[in-house]
Design goal:
Radius of gyration: 25 Å
Helix content: 10-25%
Family: Belongs to the sulfatase family.
CATH topology of the largest domain: Alkaline Phosphatase, subunit A
InterPro entries: Alkaline_phosphatase_core_sf (IPR017850), Sulfatase (IPR050738), Sulfatase_CS (IPR024607), Sulfatase_N (IPR000917)
Number of strands: 28
Structural class: alpha+beta
Shape: globular
CATH class of the largest domain: Alpha Beta
Organism: Lentisphaera araneosa HTCC2155
Protein name: N-acetylgalactosamine 6-sulfatase (GALNS)
Strand content: 25-35%
Keywords: Calcium, Hydrolase, Metal-binding, Signal
CATH superfamily of the largest domain: Alkaline Phosphatase, subunit A
CATH architecture of the largest domain: 3-Layer(aba) Sandwich
Number of helices: 11
């Protein structure tokens, strides 16, 4: 009897221990890239099937009117900070404009401060070098890429915790595998997983398993021109759904489903002409079609099934909402633009008056529960005219004026702390490793980018020793750094001598090996791309350079040329050599 009581006591302790470990729910946030509101079967798309994503809405809640920004980086910044993107000085999608100010507190910082294990797997797009890198923004683990797009989705060069590594298979499957591994490893601890998928953003690459269905399909129901771009996008969305299903299945296998919040959304409107519920606009637009995103969320233990939230909400609301749901402390010292939507998720139907602001380049608009007003002075009744076909500003001048005032007021307010002149950090005290890609460099003379879109580009057409590649920046952590460049070199051009210099210190290295792989991606692309194709670049260790603290120009030039050209350049890495 005494032995039996001890066993019962031990069992009770184990149960209590498991409950205590899961006192706070786990969180998985899935963010897709360029997937429109209409790219889901649950929203009425009759040409595709997304049962696993749809199941999240059935098991939890679907937001009817959820809004993001017109393009990638601004939306991601708002999710991470709970604040409009201009407040954190995010203004573009490349060349430094995608970086979140280093003094912002992120949602990962918040969860980490509450003893969560944190990880991000996928496309970051809010800064590469420290202090902007994901490992510097609250994420214990990062695997993916930091640029706005990537040039190859099949086993590409990626990074893990700021170290370059090879990818393993199709990129979305790979990111999901890494997320599953992390969840299995941390199943006994509360975890926060951010899964920013890279598709259906171009390049339009997708394994045959998904492509064949749409390549053979001849009974499309959507009233738009069907081309390979559209087919590939739908195939990519079904691959995403497959991977969401894998995640949900793993949560079931680990008995974590009831204790895990799963949230799914996209970062902007569709990246092509396809069915989107009749809404006007697409990616880059401040109309409904460019801003309205799917948002579904489940937490079987707390959120009632099949709930529809009709209150307008935005990506700025997710930080305070998740903090409220998980009972974790908001640690941002700056005022948030978002607010908690917990009450609406749990059953409250009160419709509060509020406004949601959108901006991209010179275009802007503002939305309340019923209307949208844009910077062209046009007013639309979204509840009755989601296609924004009829301007009613003259019919309702007082409403138009009220919304115009609110738009102008918000514009002024969010821009007051905007800072475009942040230093480009070459090295930082918190990281011994720094990556300086071609994307962030400038060049002189005959040198050309492989595409006008910088994110995954390289420099080529290097013909003379008069020209060079350079970074205007600041060394914040002085020391000795091992410098490695990633290059290609045509046969007959080897023998060139390169020099890397900064503030009077320099090193030299000879390009002794020709390495001239072909451009790749064409065979995998299902439609021609506008971004750069890629190559397999070879590393060249240039030696150790001393970098002294301060501002200056880091310059890569050729001292000697042996053939008609020099090299194509993709990336420079700097690794601090500890004494």
């Amino acid at each position: 009897m005494q032995y039996l009581s001890a066993r019962v006591l031990l069992l009770m302790c184990l149960i209590f221990s498991a409950y205590a470990k899961r006192e706070k729910p786990n969180v998985i946030v899935i963010l897709t890239d360029d997937q429109g509101w209409g790219d889901l079967s649950m929203n009425g798309n009759r040409d595709m099937d997304t049962p696993h994503i749809d199941s999240i809405a059935k098991n939890g809640a679907q937001f009817k009117y959820f809004y993001v920004q017109p393009v990638c980086s601004p939306t991601r910044a708002e999710f991470l900070t709970g604040r409009y993107h201009e407040r954190s000085s995010v203004y573009s999608t490349s060349e430094g404009g995608e970086r979140i100010d280093s003094d912002e507190q992120t949602i990962a910082d918040m969860f980490k401060a509450s003893a969560y294990k944190t990880a991000a797997f996928g496309k970051w797009h809010n800064g590469m070098q420290y202090p902007y890198h994901p490992n510097a923004r609250g994420f214990d683990e990062f695997y993916g890429f930091c640029s706005g797009h990537w040039g190859n989705y099949y086993s590409p060069m990626l990074e893990r915790n700021n170290q370059i590594v090879p990818g393993q298979g199709f990129i979305i499957d790979d990111f999901t595998n890494k997320a599953i591994d992390f969840i299995e490893k941390n199943q006994d601890n509360p975890f926060f997983v951010y899964l920013p998928y890279a598709t259906p953003h171009s390049p339009m690459q997708i394994p045959d398993r998904w492509w064949d269905k749409y390549d053979k399909k001849d009974d499309f129901k959507m009233p738009v021109k069907v081309n390979n771009h559209l087919k590939a996008a739908l195939a990519m969305c079904e691959n995403i759904d497959y991977n969401v299903g894998r995640l949900l299945k793993k949560l079931d296998e680990l008995n974590l489903s009831d204790d895990t919040i799963v949230l799914y959304m996209s970062d902007n409107g569709p990246n092509g002409d396809r069915w989107n519920g009749g809404m006007r606009g697409r990616k880059g637009s401040v109309y409904e079609g460019g801003l309205r995103s799917p948002l579904v969320i489940q937490w079987p233990r707390k959120i009632p099934p099949a709930r529809e939230v009709k209150q307008i909400s935005g990506v700025i609301d997710l930080m305070p909402t998740l903090a409220d749901l998980c009972d974790v402390k908001l640690i941002s010292e700056k005022a948030l633009d978002g607010r908690s939507m917990k009450a609406e998720l749990m059953g409250s139907t009160q419709m509060n008056e509020r406004y949601l602001y959108a901006k991209w380049s010179s275009k802007s608009s503002i939305r309340n529960q019923k209307y949208r007003f844009n910077n062209e002075g046009k007013l639309y009744d979204i509840e009755n005219d989601p296609g924004e076909k009829v301007d009613i500003s003259k019919k309702y001048p007082l409403i138009a004026q009220k919304m115009k005032n609110k738009l102008q007021e918000t514009k002024r307010d969010v821009a007051k702390d905007f800072n475009k002149n942040r230093p480009f950090v070459i090295t930082h005290p918190d990281s011994p490793f720094s990556q300086l890609p071609a994307r962030d460099a400038k060049a002189t003379g005959t040198l050309k980018r492989s595409s006008k879109h910088p994110n995954c580009s390289f420099w080529h057409n290097w013909e003379t020793t008069d020209d060079y590649i350079y970074w205007d920046g600041e060394v914040e952590a002085e020391g000795n750094y091992e410098a490695v460049i990633y290059y290609t070199c045509k046969e007959g051009h080897q023998g060139s001598v390169l020099e890397l210099s900064f503030a009077g210190n320099s090193i030299e290295a000879s390009v002794d090996h020709a390495h001239d792989p072909p451009l790749k991606g064409m065979d995998e692309d299902h439609t021609p791309r506008i971004e750069s194709y890629v190559k397999d670049f070879r590393p060249l260790n240039m030696g150790v350079i001393k970098l002294e603290k301060g501002k200056g120009v880091l310059q890569l030039k050729a001292l000697k040329k042996t053939g008609e050209g020099i090299i194509d350049f993709r990336l420079l890495t700097l690794k601090r050599i500890e004494k």
